[in-house]
Amino acid sequence: MTRLHLDQEQIDRARDSARRIARRVFEQTKPFTTTTVERATVRLLGVDGVDENMVPLPNRLVSHLQEHDLLQHGAATSVVGAMIERGWTAQQVAEAVAAGTLTIGRCQDEQDEAALRAATTAEARKMCDHIARQRAHRDREIESVGESRRPWLYLIVATGNIHEDVLQARAAVEQGADIIAVIRSTGQSLLDYVPYGATSEGFGGTYATQENFRLMRSALDEAGASVGRYIRLTNYCSGLCMPEIAVMGAIERLDMMLNDSMYGIIFRDINMQRTFIDQFFSRMVNAYAGIIINTGEDNYLTTADAREAAHTVLASQLINEQFACLSGLKPEQMGLGHAFEIDPGMENGFLWEIAHAQLVRQVFPDASLKYMPPTKHMTGNIFRGHVQDALFNVVSTVTQQDIHLLGMMTEAIHTPFIQDRFLAIQNARYVFNSMRDLHAEIEFRRGGQIERRAQAVLTETEQLLAQIEGIGLPAAIGKGIFADISRQPDGGKGLDGVIAKSGDYFNPFPHLMFEGAH
Amino acid sequence: MAQRLVKPYGDTLNDGRVQLSFTLPVALDDTAKEGARQLALMMGLENPAVAHAEAMGPDFSFFIVYGQCTHQLDLSTITVSRPEFETLDKDRIDRLIADKMGRKMVVIGACIETDAHTVGIDAIMNMKGYNGHKGLESYHHMRAINLGAQVDSEELVTRAIEEQADVILVSQVVTQKNIHLDNLTRLADLLEAEGLRDQVILIVGGPRISHELAKELGYDAGFGTRTYAEDVASFAIHEWSKRNAA
After folding, report:
1. Residue A30: CA atoms inside 13 Å, Cβ hemisphere, count?
2. Which of A210, A259, A337, B108 is most buried, judged by most C-beta within 10 A?
3. Is residue A74 part of a domain?
């Protein structure tokens, strides 16, 4: 494989810096939980459904515990205590709380507390076993049905109606998609609950609900069997309900989740304390479920200039990698994101795209890199757009990317028509096939422009990470280092859902899902 | 005015040649292909020819069709509504604000409601601007406040009151099933209800926005693609001067 000559010690120093940055944030968030982490926990214990006002029962249950000053101990033991007392399931407990017929109390006795924790852990193990079975099921499916060579073709459906999405997804699979992402309805990231059931109305996308996950999963299993390759399903584990979406995805065997440690803070103005806590729990669930996370560094380049901000992408990827490590994600589960967003009018812009993509490839040799197509400089001239996408496809195959989000010539006009996807797949397949082994045949000129550019980005990355390490990540975000957007530690949405843990806080899932988590 | 008759041009004047592509939700066969041709006829194209037909899986077919447009049109009869002002450069705008207002012009911007795409509002407002055209933040005599994405109309109006905004700038980029129209109407209604509508200059921008549409929705101006900060700023100071001339 063709390689750039880079300073490996510099890469190591940058990574060490990122490790310390992530660790410091992690230590700061440890004394806290959040309402959505606790809702995710009760979902893992089997609570689902909604009340007569369509309020999810996990919300009703966790609000109840909060009102009775119990949440800081962790929802799990309170719920399991009530289950044991009445011989009920967690679902029955939640229903009784919602109906107003049950008030949950607190176990006082210390010996009982130890027994309760053991019982809670035993109860928690059931869902862990289910998720482990789902993971094994995926492995078996991939084994028996097979899968495509990388880069995998990643396609988006976004009709707003899950039943329509299923039709579009099936058509996309027939045409050659390896990964189907169901874009969420705009605004869902700011809902502090997860909608319920199959949904047929959304804007710019479809609501992420557990039932919608299930419907799409089953359609893709069917479609995958007929085309002879396993089709991966992707959704959005982001926003105010990150941990709950992770749980739903783990239960329903999703394969990938958009799950960035900082995206919500920067682009959705979600409080950073909340996000750091939530991303940890959600990534732990994703890690356990064998899900590949996708990070959102590509978004920096839609706001900031792609060439000037290239080092912020690499710095953020290194930070995302270290947060992912803390949650137990393996390198191959890290779909670190980047994008082809340099102004097409820039002289030698294509060289810089190659430099950036190859740099990321070499810094993260084992990651499942996610490469995003041009969006910022797509103009509505679909003919030029198709060429931009073709150049993007070339860089992707030459630099050996893993997850390839297909560019649409109609980007900036509308959500894709069925033929837009078809033509995009045709474009990518042509390039990938025709250039299959090109990467092994070419070498970068030693000390040439591409290599110098990559080395310069790496140097800037190391400097930026040193600067972030000096002031801490929250302050760095406050200074607008990423995407030129500034956020403050006490600003943003969802801070009211951050709860200080009491000394006896207990949650069985970190113990079961990830040994290093506690 | 003299007539200016036009029709599409391929390689000979008035040949009327056009191309189009579309999908039919049926399997590709000779019937589907002939159906595509006849549909083009029904669209008013003469001599339609299916240049390319391809199956997209078992249930859909894709067609590229060429034909001749039979219509022609007199351009001299067309009027296009656009905001009437002259686009000035950044320095002149700054000087004009200083002269006319004697203080900074306050512009508050946001991508409202469901829209999460800040690319438009950022291009106009952020320091860096777009394509070499500096954004409103870089204007010395402007205070430009970019609230970002998914801002509720209520929140935008509240901030506009707090900041005593002269101009409200909203962006709507991504839309599905025309939700951007609902969003924009909601904001205009809210300003009206608060009795603020006449006190602010209300501007909307986005790829699907025309000045005519903006006027219909009760906005002072609408800007489509290829608009830069100086266009918006020039309109704003022009409109402000007009309103405060008396």
Report:
1. 13
2. A259
3. no
Written out in words, the top-level CATH class of the domain with range B90-243 is alpha beta
> What residue numbers bound the domain in which A404 lies?
149-452
* 416-445 in chain A: CB under 8 A from chain B: 417-419, 422
Strand, helix or coil for residue A177: coil
* Closest CA–CA distance from residue B121 to any residue of chain A (Å): 10
Looking at domain B5-75, which CATH architecture does it have? 2-Layer Sandwich (3.30)
| Residues of chain B contacting A417 with CB distance shorter than 8 Å | 23
Alpha carbon distance B186, B177 (integer Å): 16
Domain assignments of chain B as residue spans, ordered by start: 5-75, 90-243
Distance from CA of B56 to the nearest CA of A (A): 6
- The answer to whether the CB atoms of B57 and A174 lie below 8 A apart is yes
Tell me if chain A has a CB within 8 Å of the CB of B148: yes
Q: Are β-strands B61-69 and A498-500 bridged in parallel, bridged antiparallel, or unpaired?
A: unpaired
pLDDT tens-digit readout, B65-77: 999 999 999 999 9
Say if A469 falls within a structural domain. no
CA distance linking residue B62 with residue A342, whole number of Å: 32
Its pTM surpasses 0.90: no
Chain CA centroid to CA A167, Å: 25
Q: Tell me, what's the ipTM?
A: 0.84
Question: Cβ of B57 under 8 Å from any chain A Cβ?
Answer: yes
Please indicate whether the domains covering B5-75 and B90-243 agree at the CATH topology level: no
- Residue B130 · residue B167 · CB < 8 Å: no
